[in-house]
Write a structure and sequence with these properties.
Bound molecules: S-adenosylmethionine
Number of domains: 2
Structural class: alpha/beta
Largest sheet: 5 strands, parallel
Number of helices: 9
CATH superfamily of the largest domain: Vaccinia Virus protein VP39
CATH topology of the largest domain: Rossmann fold
Mean pLDDT: 93
Strand content: 25-35%
Order of helices and strands: HHEEHHEHEHEEHEEHEHEEEEEE
Helix content: 25-40%
CATH architecture of the largest domain: 3-Layer(aba) Sandwich
Strand order of the largest sheet: 5-4-3-6-7
Radius of gyration: 21 Å
């Protein structure tokens, strides 16, 4: 329940009401939560900062390729708000991580970098409703100046500008924390399924090394699994628990774990293993896929198919078989202009 400050600001109060619906525990009223997300987008539009419903920009226009991946356009970043489960789980996880960090840390405020904040600085803006500025100070960072300007205007309109200490229009993959006080928490959502195309890995590798020793990286862990699908679709009549068991049974190996520990690698690389596909694998019957699981913090997890970031990434399917029977796959993660998992094939 958001309750950190009492404000006379009319936008603040309305968002507070919507957050109570959005993060209401144990509520499965998805329609109400969906409406709450849209109402928040509507309130943001009323503040005249950025109206994602009327902006003409398309998903393709406005994004740019950087040295370590693609930065999505302002419109695409704004639209992330409406990806309900992503937004809910990231926000709930971030709020809980901040609470945990406040318990662990003697000095206050704690400092949080929102790396790739987008036009609403959504994750930090909404977290402000759960804390006091004496406890938490946010630092916004984005490659696009327009995103920084819009999120500053939004904070002014909502009456929460005193939660924000600094702004940085720069590339998060080589940003250096310039302050004498420690960086306690980094939050970044700059990823697609399978950690492809966008710079989440390079950003984590850079910023983890600048965290306070007890600092936190959010998401806490992104894991990739190699899976063999019997069919490309899963039986939709299953309960949630049966469905997840079926998904886990398909996973034959963990490919990669991106977390604070693995990001501290001196080589600035994450090493991936080599696998031989199981004997039962048949290219004309099975698909080979990469599954993504995002543990934002603690129990706040985005699992298979929960949102676009956790859709399966198919490497081979019966209609487009790319991996032969008996293949040995040598995986590596390419940190480059176009990042992602790559593999070379060794056939017996
Ligand atoms: C998917 S959006 C997420 C927006 C917001 N944090 C949220 O969760 O709703 C990713 C944002 O990261 C920014 N971004 C991507 N790559 C970046 C980089 N290398 N340096 C700084 N910002 C980056 C994009 O401009 C975009 O605003």
């Amino acid at each position: 329940m958001p309750q950190a400050r009492v404000s006379q600001n009319k936008y603040y109060q309305r968002i507070q009401e919507q957050l109570a619906i959005l993060l209401k525990p144990a509520s499965e009223n998805w329609q109400a939560k969906r409406e709450a997300c849209h109402t928040i987008a509507g309130i943001f539009a009323e503040t005249d900062v950025y109206n994602l419903y009327t902006e003409k920009e398309t998903e393709q226009a406005g994004g740019i390729w950087l040295n370590h991946g693609y930065a999505v356009s302002t419109w695409s970043a704004a639209m992330c708000l409406l990806e309900l489960k992503r937004t809910m789980v990231f926000l709930a996880g971030l709020v809980e991580a901040i609470q945990e960090q406040l318990k662990q840390t003697k000095e206050k405020p704690i400092h949080i970098l929102d790396a790739g904040c987008g036009p609403f600085a959504l994750l930090s803006t909404l977290s402000c409703f759960y804390f006091k500025p004496e406890e938490v100070q946010f630092h916004r960072l984005d490659i696009f100046e327009d995103n920084i300007t819009a999120s500053q205007k939004l904070a002014d309109a909502l009456g929460i500008a005193d939660f924000f200490s600094s702004d940085h229009c720069t590339d998060a993959t080589n940003f250096q924390w310039p302050f004498p006080y420690p960086l306690h928490l980094v939050v970044s959502e700059t990823m697609l399924n399978g950690l492809r195309k966008e710079p989440q890995v390079a950003i984590s590798l850079n910023l983890s090394k600048q965290l306070h020793p007890t600092g936190m990286l959010i998401p806490e862990e992104v894991s990739l699994y190699l899976a063999i699908h019997q069919q490309t679709t899963v039986n939709s009549a299953l309960t949630d628990a049966e469905f997840l068991t079926e998904i886990r049974n398909m996973e034959i190996a963990c490919l990669m774990q991106l977390n604070k520990q693995t990001s501290l690698s001196k080589e600035n690389q994450i090493t991936l293993p080599t696998f031989s596909l199981p004997a039962h694998y048949q290219p004309d019957k099975h698909a080979v896929a990469v599954h993504t699981r995002i543990r934002v913090f603690g129990k706040h997890i985005l699992d298979y198919n929960d949102c676009s970031l956790t859709l399966p990434l198919f490497l081979s399917t019966p209609t487009k078989p790319r991996i032969p029977k008996g293949a040995k796959l040598d995986f590596h993660y390419s940190i480059s202009h176009s990042p992602g998992v790559q593999y070379s094939l060794h056939t017996a």
